[in-house]
Amino acid sequence: MPEQLNARVEACYQQAEAFFNRRFTRPAVSLKLRGQKAGVAHLDENLLRFNPQLYRENSEDFLKQTVAHEVAHMIAREMFGSRIQPHGEEWQLIMRGVYELPPNRCHTYAIKRRTATRYLYNCQCPDHDFPFSAQRHALVSKGRRYFCRRCRATLVFSGQQRQE
Question: SMART domains per the record (predicted)?
Answer without folding.
Answer: SprT (SM00731)
